[in-house]
Structures are given as C-alpha cells and as structure tokens.
Amino acid sequence: MRTLLLPLQWLSDFVVAVGKGARFFVHLCWLGVAALRRPRLVIDQVHFIGNYSLSIILVSGLLIGFVLGLQGYYTLRRYGSEEALGVLVTLSLVRELGPVVTALLFAGRAGTSLTAEVGLMKAGEQIDAMEMMAVDPVARVLAPRFAAAVFSMPLLAALFSALGVLGGYLVGVAMIGVDAGAFWSQMQSGVDWLDDVGNGVVKSVVFGFTVAYVALFVGYNAQPTPEGVARATTTTVVAASLAILGLDFIMTALMFNTN
C-alpha cells in the first residue's frame, strides 16, 4: 500500500509545483507590464543586467564569428562556393547562434546574479519586511528586474550577431581573401528580414522571458540559507539552459518548417 502511495504523492507534488509556477509566471508578467510605469526602476535594472553583461556578449560574439568564418570557408571551399561565406555566417548567427548563445551566456551571467540577489534578500529577511509593511515584493523587487531582463535580451542578441558578422568578415575577407563585395552582396540577398532576422528576434524575446522567469522564481523560492542560495544559483543555470535548448528546438521546428 505504501509503495502505491509514493507515485501518487510525487504526482500530487508535481501538480502543485506546476500550478505554483504558472501562478507566479502570470503574476510576474502582469506586474512586469505595470512596472513600466516606474521607468527609473527598470532603467536601473537594465544597466545592472544588460550593461554588465555586455563585455562577455561582445567578446563571445566576435570570437564565434572568427570560428564561423574559418569553418565556413573550409567547408564551402570544397564546393567552390567561398563567396557564400557571408550568408552562411549571417544565417547561422541571426537564426541560431545569436539568440541561443546569448541566452546561455545571459543565464550564466545575469540569471545567476538575479537569483543570488533575490535569494540573499530573502535570507536577510528583506522580503519578509516588505510583506509586513504591506509592500508587494514581487511588484517592487521582481517585476522591474523581469521587465529589464526581457528588454535587454534582444538587444544583447542583436549585438552578439553584429559582432559575429564582423568577426566572420575579418577572417573571411581580411585574412583569407574572400571578395568583400561577394561577401556582403550574398549576405544581403540571402538573408530575409522577416523570416530570418525577425524569427531570431522572437527567439531572443522568448529566451529573455525564460531566463528572467527561471532566475526570479528560483531565487524567490530559495531556502534562506547560504547553502540554499548557492544551490539556487546552480539550479538557475541548469534549468534555464535546458529550457533554452528545448524551446529553441520547438521554435526552430515551427518557424523554419519547409513543408
């Protein structure tokens, strides 16, 4: 009898956790829109979340552009299509690598920072103090951070892709000797603003929602101890990374279905 109750207990706990997470997400989205009425709080968080993540995003984008330029050139040379290097690098970045790698870096840099910050506020009983003063901590603390993360993510992904294209150009044209006119003309004719760039922007917005939600939810529900906060930051990286990769597969299958 006891063995039969264990799966039921697990299922019950799972349903409760899903319901709690869904309620938190709806509440956070609603208050995130309301937080725009206090732009100063959002701007401060954009500076904290986006500006402090800028250096690693730009350097990573440039280096990945270098790698794409080299690998793409050696692959295309087999088929005599070196002039298509520009479109190869750009499509790889705006469709996939730009949004996905930026989101993974964003989860590791900004996501863990958000989780640790909220978790430490909870451990220091600042969240409880706000509730005792009739101040909603979700509206005052979490919602501006959520709105700032969603706003920052597409901008960081665009900068990542731009630096990646620049890196591919430097390697392919300046170092290897691919014709510069062919590089840019092939890129301009082969990249569609709506189907390629637009879908990449949609991906980056969805990833921004995902990373911000996971980071704030895990931090808000962390155990108010040093061990609990440390465990929460690790959970944020793992859960956000897996969610990003899973959502990327789903959105890619929906957006670029050729049937």
Describe the structure.
- The chain has 259 residues and is mainly alpha-helical.
- The chain has one domain.
- Helices cover 86% and strands 0% of the residues.
- It contains 9 helices and no strands.
- Helix 1 crosses helix 6, helix 6 packs across helix 8 and helix 8 packs antiparallel against helix 9.
- The longest helix is centred in the middle third of the chain and has 40 residues.
Instruction: Give the integer mean of the pLDDT values.
Output: 86
Task: Tell me the Rg in angstroms.
Answer: 22 Å
Find the count of extended strands (DSSP E, 2+ residues). 0
| Distance between the ends | 51 Å
Compute the number of helices. 9
Topology, please?
Layout: H1 2-34, H2 39-49, H3 54-77, H4 85-123, H5 126-132, H6 137-176, H7 180-190, H8 193-220, H9 226-255
Helix pairs in contact: 1-6, 2-6, 3-4, 3-6, 4-6, 4-7, 4-8, 4-9, 6-8, 8-9
Short description:
The protein has 259 residues and is mostly helical.
Which descriptors apply to this entry?
259 residues; mainly alpha; 86% helix; elongated
